[in-house]
Amino acid sequence: MKVGVIGLGLIGGSMAIDLKRKGFAQEVLGVEAEPLNAAAAQKIGLADRVVPLQECVEESDLVVLAVPVGAAVKMLPEILDIFASQKAAEKIVIDVCSTKEHLSRAVKYHKARKQYVATHPMAGTEYSGPWAAMPGLFDGHACIICDAEESSPKAVHTVEQLYDTLNMRTIYMNSSNHDVHTAYVSHISHVTSFALALTVLDKEKDEKHIFDLASGGFSSTVRLAKSSPDMWIPILSQNRDNVLQVMDTYIDKMNAFRKAIAEGDEEAVRTLIEDANRIRRIIR
């Protein structure tokens, strides 16, 4: 199989590495709009060839759309247009974006809709660009396939094989539920990290103190604040309603802690912490 990867950053580049290394892809074609990143991806060897978008889509059996979701909403219909113009009913395109409803709506009535499989591999780091790509990034993580009934069974089966090659476990849900759940387990984590970083940078003017005194707990909590704004602005914009709902709940919990601490109510603080400790049963 010839696989095209549009966007050779952390996710796209890491997929390119493992799909070639594990034999799923015989050849990987890459598309990278940023010239510096394209040169780096070529030098690192993330793709066998870095080519223009049209050439990549026309030559590839399966296309991975690994760009920020704002760009993906525009590019996905264009890719399906190329499939339709080629009369290439066997071709497949997947995306790896963190929100799904806008993408789903963008191609809902496209004549090549069944050749698109909406996916979200739940793996990553706070780093971006081709330099961040690594083998084994997806091992043991979950991948969500959305609206599988809207795609052809053969396309879904091929994509299941792709993620099995990446050693991921597959979960199925619709686009709406996906966006609600990712707001709670992913998007709020990034907003919280951004806010914490801003709080510390605002109050602690001596950067050396931050560096010297930051413990492992602070570092692990704030590491997501290093994430790219180009990636996260469209995610937070497209999933705005769900993210705002989660933020309101988070603010309520913060206010509960503030009230208990301000009143010196140690029993209330204990209750809040013990309630939070229940997460141990879920995440170890």
Any overview of this molecule?
By secondary structure, this protein is an alpha/beta fold. The model has no long low-confidence stretch (mean pLDDT 93). An eight-stranded mixed sheet has the order 3-2-1-4-5-6-7-8, with helices on both faces. The chain has helices at 10-21, 35-44, 53-59, 69-86, 101-106, 153-165, 175-203, 207-213, 216-222, 229-238, 240-262, 266-276, and strands at 2-6, 27-31, 49-50, 62-65, 92-95, 116-121, 142-146, 169-173. Helix 2 links the parallel strand 2 and strand 3. The longest helix is centred in the middle third of the chain and has 29 residues, at 175-203. It has twelve helices and eight strands. It folds into two domains: 2-173, Rossmann fold; 178-281, Orthogonal Bundle (6-phosphogluconate dehydrogenase C-terminal fold), CATH 1.10.3660.10.
Q: What is the 3D form?
A: globular
Helix share bin: 40-55%
Distance between the termini: 38 Å
Strand percent estimate: 5-15%
**What is the CATH C level class of the largest domain, in words?**
Alpha Beta
Please state the average pLDDT score: 93
Order of helices and strands: EHEHEHEHEHEEHEHHHHHH
Low-pLDDT segments, ≥5 res: none
For the sheet with most strands, the description reads:
8 strands, mixed
The count of helical stretches stands at 12
For the record, the count of structural domains works out to 2
The assigned CATH architecture of the largest domain is 3-Layer(aba) Sandwich
Based on DSSP secondary structure assignment, what is the total number of beta strands?
8
